[in-house]
Amino acid sequence: MKITYNWLKEFVEFKHSPSELSKLLTMAGLETNVIESIDDDHVIEVDLTPNRSDCHSVIGIAREVSALTGGRFKYPDTNPPSIPPLIKGGRGDLEGDIDSLISVTVEDPQLCPRYTARIIRGVKVKPSPSWLEKKIIAVGLRPINNIVDATNYILWEMGQPIHAFDYEHIKGKKIIVRNAYKNESLATLDEKKHSLSEDSLVIADSERAVALAGVMGGENSGVTQATRDILLESAYFNPINIRRTSRRHGIFTDSSYRFERGIDNERVVAALDRAANLIAELSEGKVVKGRIDCYLKKISYPQIDLRISRTNKILGISLSREQILNVLNRLMFTTKVIDDDNIRVNVPSFRKDIEREIDLIEEVARLHGYEKILKTIPSSKVSVSVSTKSQVFEKEARNILTSLGLTEVINYSFIDEKYFDAINIHQDDPLRKTIKLRNPLSQNWSVMRTTLLPGIINTAVFNINRGIYDVGIFEVGKVFIPNERLPVENMMIGCAATEKVEKKIWSKGDRDFYYLKGLVESLLGRLNIHGVKFFPVNLSYIHPQKGACVRINSEDIGCLGELSPAAAEGFDLKEKLYVFELSLDKIISKVVVERKYAHLPKYPSIYRDIAVVLNNNIKSDDVYRSIRDTDNSILKEIILFDYYEGKQIPDGKKSLAYSLVYRADDRTLTDDDVNPIHEKITKSLNDKLGAILR
After folding, report:
1. Rounded distance between C-alpha atoms, residue 434 and residue 423, angstroms
2. Which of these, 433, 457, 458, 460, lies nearest to 447 by C-alpha position?
3. Residue 430 burial (CB < 10 Å; 0-12/13-18/19+)?
4. What angle, rounded to 10 degrees, do the helices at 321-330 and 308-315 form?
5. Which stretches of 122-207 are DSSP H helices?
6. Which tens digits make up the pLDDT trace of 40-60?
7. How far does Cα 481 stand from its chain's mean position?
8. CA angle 100–106–107, rounded 5-degree value
């Protein structure tokens, strides 16, 4: 927000230099800099926070200066300085009634609570006088002509956007404030054509839209050199609707900037009258008598009770009631003393940011001076917080995955629905039942995620596309499942790893399905979880021959595998990518907290190897369980150390070789102890699985 020093002095009396004024405003919470001097004047730039919509004008800053310096403040006159005043009934007003020239209809008062209009006839469009051009240039705008410059002047001075229509181009001499129709379009003043959404508010005549309300006027009704009569608009539009319209169409103007932050609806008419008289003087036009003021929905402002004791307690100071009243009155708040401790405060229409008692306390602190509040260390009790079981094991899971060589990433909790197509998830899949955001930051983040996979796959692809082919990442985060009221939030663990490894020091090759399976087994094993099994999985985004479902005690906790070709193509991925997604909530529920320890063995072990030939469709886990379930107490370990398919093995067969470790806790074993058990295992494998010793 830029203003000039002399322009500010037109509305408030003060004796501070530009640099002194800058420091004063900065200390009061309005970051200010003097950036340049022009023609014995200084340009002052004020960096405003979004809540201070009242300061987006010269008179807004002037009110602040008045409160800080005690200088007398005055609102702008109907006519600007150096412009001769209009004489009502003389050359300023035309005989006649505006109601006979134009009608205004507001269809939705929620979106447009107030709409006012005036007409100026017989105008001459020409360059602006030098005093106006200098002010327009000083605030960073480009002079265009006397009509446009006058509306910009009022916008900057009073914070009220004003729009001028060419009256002759208003069809049917009607103004209708309505939502855009389906498939309606509008070419705006920047010569761009926009397809309008039905949620967008437009200003229309009897045939078509002539402006995007609060954002930009239409090319079909703009002021040109041929314009002779002007319809002037000054209105108050719903800030949320203007913000959405501006973002939806990608149009960001000084007008939309102010409307979406909230303007002073009680100064709408004053700005209209000032603009009408200024345009009449600059263009030799005449203002038609009367104005239209459709104020269909009155806007009320808070009435807040401020406690003096509460104010002093929050700020750590001791202000009297009179001191607090003085601060509030300087800020143009209307006050009434209720009792010794309570003041009733009526918030003025220009302060949209004041809603609660704490807001008033902040104003007292700001005007009293932050530097006058003593620096004290707050007293507090230090208590030891105890982590929940979920928090403990969530942290432990992160530490385990990090120790396994993975890097943690954090993605947004919302995604684009297009990722469901990219990852090849079927249309009827429950993962597509999402919670849609009412006001998303962009289309890329429009729904709450129901799976972590799109985020981590996208992160992996982002790195691969930049030449980083060795990617091993994981994420611990929530997914959101729709429910009747609040969504169900499930904590998940996701992982993505590329096939290629940048540095092969001790490893035998690149990553594969078994590397991913090993990660899952290591994670669950170090969490002391037993009974883990892997079964075939049928998921559209997992390779049909290189995937598995993970189960713990008959409960599915997730899946793992290579990304299917269709899913890889959806992300334009040329490299192989291995992923898993597990339910952390289910994993934590299976954790065995108690750990059992045993003494180191006192007696030596006996090792026996066994190699069997069996059908290809028999899983190694089936062999493992058959050996393990043999009735004995001396078999301690079963280790798979070889897998073979080739010329020495019949087609459709495979060879698996296991190392079996036998050991007793109370004696040294002999062959007589081991041989019967070993033979029993061999017979069991043959009977149950048709395995033949190799």
Report:
1. 15
2. 433
3. exposed
4. 90
5. 130-138, 146-158
6. 789 999 999 888 999 999 999
7. 20
8. 135
What are the DSSP calls for 95-108, one per residue? SS-GGGT-EEEES-
Q: Where are the beta strands (DSSP E) in 536-671?
A: 542-552, 555-563, 577-583, 606-615, 635-644, 653-662
| Domains 2-69 and 606-693 in one fold | no
Residue 158: C-alpha distances to residues 90, 258, 382 (Å): 27, 11, 51
> What 3-state DSSP class applies to 343?
strand
The two three-digit tokens of residue 623, written as one number = 């062999």
Phi/psi at 216 (5° precision):
-160, 145
- The answer to whether 310 and 360 have CB atoms below 8 angstroms apart is no
List CB contacts of 153: < 8 A, sequence separation 6 or more. Answer: 80, 132, 135, 136, 278
Contact 75, 344 (CB under 8 A): no
Res. 82 pLDDT band, cuts 50 70 90? very low
Choose among 600, 611, 607, 623: nearest CA to 661.
607
399 burial type by CB count under 10 A (0-12 exposed, 13-18 middle, 19+ buried)? exposed
Query: What's the CATH superfamily of 389-590?
Result: Bira Bifunctional Protein; Domain 2 (3.30.930.10)
Q: Which of 219, 235, 226 is nearest to 151 (CA)?
A: 235
Give all strands of the β-sheet with 216-217 in edge-to-edge order. 103-106, 174-179, 201-204, 209-212, 216-217
- The four Cα atoms 661, 664, 670, 674 give a dihedral, to 10 degrees, of -50
Backbone angles phi, psi at 362, to 5 degrees: -65, -40
Provide φ and ψ at 273, rounded to 5°: -65, -40
pLDDT-derived band at 509, boundaries 50, 70, 90: low
As a whole number of angstroms, the distance between CA 298 and CA 307 comes to 29
Instruction: Quote the CA–CA distance of 337 and 492 in Å, as a whole number.
Output: 57
Q: Look up residue 351 and give its amino acid.
A: R
CATH topology of domain 93-295: Phenylalanyl-tRNA Synthetase; Chain B, domain 3 (3.50.40)
**Six-digit token string for 577:** 């990518």
Q: Which residues pair with 548 in a beta bridge?
A: 560
List the chain domain ranges: 2-69, 93-295, 303-371, 389-590, 606-693
- CA proximity to 371, closest of 24, 50, 95, 632: 24
* C-alpha–C-alpha distance, residues 555 and 561, integer Å: 18
The pair of structure tokens assigned to 230 is 């002007």
Token reading at 435:
């919670």
Task: Report whether 253 contacts 190 (CB < 8 A).
Answer: no
User: Position of tokens 């699985």?
Assistant: 689
Burial of 100 (0-12, 13-18, 19+ CB in 10 A): exposed
- Residue 89 CA from chain centroid, whole number: 55
- Give yes or no for a contact between 431 and 497, defined as CB atoms under 8 angstroms apart: no
Task: Please give the CATH number for the structural domain made up of 2-69.
Answer: 3.30.56.10
In the predicted model, what is the mean pLDDT of residues 547-561? 92
Can you give the pTM of this predicted structure? 0.61
- The three-class DSSP label of residue 262 is coil
| CATH architecture classification, 303-371 | 2-Layer Sandwich (3.30)
Q: What is the dihedral of CA 399, 405, 410, 413, to 10 degrees?
A: -90
pLDDT digits (tens, 9 = 90+) for 332-381: 999 999 999 999 999 999 999 999 999 999 999 999 988 888 887 777 77
Q: Tell me the C-alpha distance between 72 and 587, whole Å.
A: 70
The CATH superfamily assigned to 606-693 is Ferrodoxin-fold anticodon-binding domain (3.30.70.380)
Confidence class for position 90, pLDDT limits 50, 70, 90: very low
Parallel, antiparallel or unpaired: strands 472-481 and 407-408: parallel
